[in-house]
Amino acid sequence: MAVKVEELLTAEINQPARYLGNELGATHKPWDAASVRWVLTYPEVYEVGASNLGHIILYNILNALPRQLCDRAYLPAPDLAAKLRSTKTPLFAVESRRSLTEFDILGFSLSYELGATNILEMLDLAGIPLTWQERATNRQNGQMPLIFAGGQTATSNPEPYADFFDFIALGDGEELLPEIGLILAEGKTNNLSREALLLDLAQIPGVYVPQFYDMAADGSVHPNRPQVPERILRRVATPIPAYSIGLVPYVQTVHDRLTVEIRRGCTRGCRFCQPGMLTRPARDVEPQQVVEAIEQGMQATGHSEFSLLSLSCSDYLALPAVGMEIKNRLKDKNISLSLPSQRVDRFDDNIADILGGTRQGGLTFAPEAGTQRMRDIVNKGLTNEELLRGVKTAVDRGWDKIKLYFMIGLPGETDFDVLGIAETVRWLHRECRINGRRGLTFNLTISNFTPKPHTPFQWHSVSTAEFSRKQKLLKEEFRGMRGVKVNYTDVRISAMEDFVGRGDRRLAAVVRRAWELGAGMDAWWESLDQAYKAWTQAIDESGLTWKYRQVESGEWNLFEKEEEHDTDADTDTRMNLTAGAGTGAPPLPAGAGTGAPPLPAGAGTGAPPLLDQPLPWDHLDTGIDKNWLKIDLQKALEAATVPDCSFEGCSRCGVCGTDFGHNVVVEALPIPEFAGEFVPNTERKQRFRVWFGKVGDMALVGHLDLIRLFDRVVRRADLPISFTGGFHPNPRISLANALPLGVTSTGEIADFELTESIDIESFREKLAAKLPENIPIYKVESIDLKAPSANQLLEAAEYAITVAVGGSLTENGELDQENAAPVCVAPDANWEAWVKTIVETEAFWRVHTTKSGKTQDVNLRDRLHKLELVDHKPDSSTSARSGTSEGRAVLRFTGSCRSDGNLLKPEHIVFMLEQVSQQEIQLLQVERSQLILGYG
Description:
- Helices cover about 30% and strands about 20% of the residues.
- By secondary structure, it is α/β, with parallel strands linked by helices.
- A hairpin with an 8-residue loop joins strand 21 (about 735) and strand 22.
- Helix 19 crosses helix 21.
- Mean pLDDT is about 90; it is low at about 560-600, about 600-605, about 810-825 and about 875-885.
């Protein structure tokens, strides 16, 4: 049964278009024709989830399958979440608008250690028990959907969240999810129990069912029945660019562009990088597939920007050739290309040639560390010479703002290395100065290193006390340095990421309690103190405070000498991140460059050596050999680098083989000759004035979103639109007046200027074919190019409003004596009398505050041209409360609507009605029926 979404999305709900599910590319499959009904539930607000490439790809793949239906749901913003709870309305999927409990399976993306609290929030809003244990014993067990998670964090270490999910999907989902769908369809046909269905799912490689595994006292995880595998395999799939073409949201999203993956996996071997370890082998996409997906996708979506995605785009050797081919094919479309963070050592003129367009975007590099020694320890594979060459190339090609990412708290780091970050930036400033040009600006992000599972540094221990001390060092060093803006990751966030990310099943209670105390992800940004307090309270209540204290002070240091672990126990050096934690600068790492010390043992405790102790994620087979991680860690202790196996010899990591495949590398291709930059066509050959409507749920799309919609519609319709000149050319599309959010209209006006003359009916047909059905076109006229715009001619607007009596103003305490009109009407007057009184009154004064903050007295009556009562009827609830029979009424009025700010709004009519009636008047519905132009 569909939720009445239109009743929820009232005026106080921000960005209501998030929840409509009617975007271009949305798939509305028949409910009854589907045998399996999915919801991809993204635990972030719509603007984040709807632009996530994995979300889009899996949505498209599932809906391409016969008899499988896939809908979507997102974390509602706090305003809608509060309304769902107050009205006892369950969280719904945006397309079918059905409660999430009506579906067969819900799939959550878990890509961040602290993201599980948002998942619990969504389950609670949906009325679904939070844990698999509660769902198994729930009386509605047979009606509850299966709950699963996928994503980087779920694949890396799902144990802290294992209680919340029926199963975990490990690795890539393109092939795995369709296999799950087949098992679900078969299980429904055979009427399998929930446990039997999960047992069938556990036979699929890549499906981990936590309830079929138990945690031992040492934190390791083992099967509790013979029918499931001891280790669960991570799935690997080949990227398919065509599935990237999908949703085109009405609201602006965080990645408001077409994104196409060019390479999946990274073999650079950075020792801190979890994605690089969890996505091996590297798989390049065939260049022709990339080019075709971009060309078709830009036409189908109407986007003005596209992005090529990879963990390391510059390792896609065909990038310059592919980028130039796309740029040449789309040179007349005013299109820009952006790339994520790039390898600075591969940034050259060929890559600079393909970036940007008419809008040069930002440039981001990640040196990670400030000294060569530290970059070698983490296997960054970047020299000072390569760093300087890449930044100099960027500056020479016109960039004057560059983002740089660094980390502090890396294993073996000294204060010299920390201060080396500032010295590196100072050096780059000095070497890249160009006379006669604006100075170079660096935006730095200094992150706190948190060790991740399945990496060589997974055994390392961090210290938040050291993070704070090192941040203080850097702040002192950067003080007074010009041309540098520095952002630091909050130490408390890093502490929680580490505490949860490498935890075991005991942490499920912490995650749940933190959510109960209000620690959703949004709380970190809105009130970090409150979120941190919730997490620490949850830890205290769970009895795991001792474990968190180890994160604060540091538990061990992989770079300490063996003998330091066996000396005076009172000093407890084993509990420090470094030998000098909290007491000053730590010593230089022993053995760096001279032969490293042996790796730490169990320090006389009787426990296995540190690196041989079981880990909570050892039962997950990611393909990376744990012994190889130990060997690579030893190389880190020696500051020895390992080459990239995509381009040099095999590193013996263990991935390549039958289960995971091998590296697929596309060789560099000849770069096509540059066909020239986009030159905006500013010719104006024809001008059309279009009268259109904004009805139904399109009333919930804001004015700026409507402007962006028309831009994309014109692109999709391939209309010869004229552009403005200047550095940022824009299409010559002009809307007469901004319609307030939530207001419907049958009388909006827009002007379009074209570079060539076309038949008026052809223009109308092309435009209408690409517009949403709730933006109908009523009339199109050809007008003179020299004629004033509709905005300049605008004089008045006609509205129809529905209003109702809400009670006595005096009783409600809302009478505004200062602005009251000098009129009065008998208490038993009706709508006819109130309307007549307004029409006959000469002045209704109200104080108006301008945008600059100045106040002025305005006579609203001067702005009212016409007011009439269209219809009215008693409202039984109103009559019972107020003892009158005024009820509801529909009024039509015409008032000023000029671009100089001389406006009469529906709210002003309500104000006048309240003055003459001495009653609270509620504005229930507004429709603008026409905009009136003054042609002189």
